[in-house]
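Researcher: Please translate sequence to structure tokens.
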Amino acid sequence: MPATNITASELNTHLIWLIAFILLWLIEVFLSHQNGYKSGEESQALAKILHISSKTIRLAAHIFLFAMVMFLGLMAFPEHKIYIIAAVLLWAILDEATKPLLHNYRHSSVLDMGMNMIGIMIGPGIKAIMEHV
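Model: Translation complete:
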């Protein structure tokens, strides 16, 4: 593998994307697997503030989080796009599949998995927009 010349600025930018990707993925895992009652209470509180339904909040959260995880993954690992796409797609399925195993009053949902997939499809679009701005 040939050596590449990378500037300190490019390295710093890469590290920022990498740290953001890891932190958001950890936040997604935490939020997704927290106690169902607590999660429901938080959704209802946010729904009251925003004057929309808690169901809308929950569905939008799936889309937003997976769009951002995909976007940040692609920004952090631009040379490994196929691996990032595969990893995030796998996690989108496992995220829902593991919920009933945790005994924390959560359930898996095909609708939620679909919202994860929509977010995954949006992530590369965000990256494309960012690269052309």
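Researcher: Any highlights?
Model: Residues 9-131 form one domain.
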